[in-house]
Amino acid sequence: MMMKKIHRFPVFPGSPPAEGPNLIKIASGKGGVGKTWFSITLAQCLSLTGRKILLFDADLGLANADVQLGASARHSLADVIAGKVALHTATQVTGGNARGHGDIHLLAGRSGTGSLSELNHSEINRLRRGLLLASAHFDHSIVDIGAGLDRTVTSFCALPGSVLVVITNEPTSLTDAYALIKLLVMRDPGTDIRIVVNMAKNERDGQHAYASLHRACEAFLHVSPPLAGIIPRDDWVGEAIRRQTGLLIRHPSSPAAHAVALIARDIVKASKARAAGRAG
Question: Cβ(25)–Cβ(162) under 8 Å?
Answer without folding.
Answer: yes
